[in-house]
Design a protein that fits this description.
Strand order of the largest sheet: 1-2-3-4-5-6-7-8-9-10-11-12
Order of helices and strands: HEEEEEHEEEEHEEE
Shape: globular
Strand content: over 45%
Helix content: 10-25%
Number of strands: 12
CATH topology: Lipocalin
Largest sheet: 12 strands, antiparallel, barrel
CATH architecture: Beta Barrel
Number of helices: 3
Length: 293
């Protein structure tokens, strides 16, 4: 009896220790990204984006589910007026893998699989959001870019160059080159990011709970060369479409905060005009909330 009770107590202690260990060691990083042009009191172009991502602890890969929604500025017509963005939506799943060649050089490859058109549920999601927020609904979703099962492969290289470091406050430069191919997007991009702040994080292939807290700001400049963008050009000749600009410059300003298991990233995007005859530029913000759980 004593032996059985001792064994039961030891098993109970082991079980409690295991639960405690599981709670103190997160399974991974959960991340919710919300993009919207309402940061600038607009409702046009890339008007909304949403994605949920998960990265297992100490893993070099991330999986995510996301949706992007594009609309013109004029909401009351059955088809966008000349000079405004087509109605379009892109619903996708994405897998991403990171590989660190050296501590300052990171290669990221990804594959997105999804659909455009009515299957992407852009109208339904926007109508629901506008009903909740008491906004007017758009009338032209019947003219949206048609259905297409799509794929996008991407390879991105990032190189970190430390510039200044003084008492945990530093300045560095991250240059990047990226190429995308598939039946939705074909383009290439190059740019550079200046980071200034406290405890600047390193480029890491494997994501783990940060050991230090960080607070820093970023300024990024990039240029994209576009060969194909189905969300502008349409799937077939019957789609309302516009002709993409072949070269687009973008300025991005951001602030980033990491504290223990919590991470907040806020970036504001200021792209140039992205298609021929575009009436207005389309600025938007991306807020990303992340938590190790």
């Amino acid at each position: 009896m004593f032996r059985r009770s001792t064994i039961m107590i030891l098993l109970l202690i082991l079980g409690l220790y295991t639960v405690s260990l599981a709670q103190s060691t997160p399974t991974g990083l959960w991340s919710l990204g919300v993009a919207n042009d309402s940061f600038f009191n607009q409702d046009r172009g890339y008007t909304s984006g949403l994605d949920l991502a998960f990265t297992p602890n100490s893993a070099a890969y991330t999986i995510s589910l996301g949706q992007d929604i594009f609309t013109p500025e004029t909401r009351s017509t059955l088809q966008p007026p000349h000079g405004e963005h087509p109605y379009a939506a892109w619903l996708y799943v994405k897998g991403e893998h990171r590989y660190s060649i050296i501590p300052t050089l990171l290669i990221t490859s990804s594959l997105s699989l999804g659909t455009t058109g009515q299957r992407a549920q852009g109208k339904e999601v926007q109508d629901f959001a506008h009903q909740v927020l008491d906004f007017n609904e758009y009338s032209g979703w019947d003219s949206q870019v048609s259905n297409r099962w799509g794929w996008v492969a991407c390879v991105k290289g990032q190189w970190l160059l430390p510039l200044i470091e003084f008492d945990k406050v530093g300045v560095d430069l991250i240059t990047h080159v990226q190429g995308r191919g598939g039946n939705i997007h074909i383009d290439g991009e190059a740019g550079a990011t200046v980071r200034l702040g406290y405890h600047l994080p390193q480029l890491e292939a494997q994501k783990t709970t940060p050991s230090t807290n960080s607070l820093y700001v970023t300024v990024t400049g990039s240029r994209k060369i576009v060969d194909k963008n189905i969300l502008l050009e349409g799937v077939n000749n019957g789609d309302y479409h516009v002709k993409p600009e072949r070269g687009v410059n973008t300025l991005i300003c951001g602030i980033h905060w990491l504290h223990g298991a919590y991470q907040v990233d806020l970036d504001f995007h200021f792209p140039e005009k992205e298609f021929k005859g575009q009436d207005y530029t389309n600025s938007y913000g991306i807020l990303r909330l992340s938590y190790w759980y």
